[in-house]
Each structure stands twice: as structure tokens, then as C-alpha cells.
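Let us work through a complete example step by step.
Step 1: write down the sequence.
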Amino acid sequence: MVPLLLVLLLALLLFGAGFAIKVLWWVAVVVLVVWILGFVMRSAGTGGSRGRWYRW
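Step 2: predict the structure and record it as C-alpha cells.
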């Protein structure tokens, strides 16, 4: 009974880790798209130079 519970627990942990990794990949893709759009759509600053689109 204990080995069966350990196998089920391991399968549950691996499924949860796989789901979390898949979600993190989608988050990374969204952040990459926003980052690229920030470079493309940034407005020109004073003096005609293109400034940074972020505020840090």
C-alpha cells in the first residue's frame, strides 16, 4: 500500500511541476512580446532621440 501511495504522490508532483513549467513558459512568452513591443513602439524623446520606454 505504501509503495502505491508513493508512486501516486510522485506522479502528482511531476504533473504539478509539468503544469507549472508550462505556465511559466507562457508567462515568459508574454513578457518577451511586451518587451519587443516596447522597443518597437517607444516614442521619440526631446531632441529627436529615442528614449527608454521603461522608468527604472
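Step 3: interpret the result. The chain has a mean pLDDT of 78.
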